[in-house]
Amino acid sequence: MSAAAVAALGVAVVSASGYVWYVPALVDLRAGQDRPESRRMAAAACVTGWGAAAAVAVLLLAGAPWRVALSAAALGGGVSAALRIRSALCRRREAAEEVLRWAALLRAPHAGPHAGPGTGPDPAAATRRSATWAAAGLGTATALAVAVILALATGSASP
Fold it and tell me: What is the C-alpha separation between 22 and 18, in angstroms, rounded?
């Protein structure tokens, strides 16, 4: 088996296993206007990147020169990176618009007696809460993995 065939097989397997990223991205693209623009652009970046990897696999299987395959990979990676950067900038703009919307809602007379500055959702608190849960889960998983490895290493685990 030639080196190009082995490389093509490897890229094809990795591309096929990337379905956990590109299938949800395809769903976001299919949803159209039901998703924010930044999310659709991020999905397009994901699909472009994985599509480039699949194209490289096809080129390598077809016997194209390495330069052609690498050029396709570089082009796909560049387009994917550009879309992702544009998505991040769009997300920043959308977040700023959302802050303005919440500020307008909190100033509205019908917002209730407790409406005022600082009564909207606190994104920093949500981030801290998510980070705390992630750290707790990671710590638990690490402790469990260490316990299993130690048990196997000392032979105290019975088959």
Answer: 6
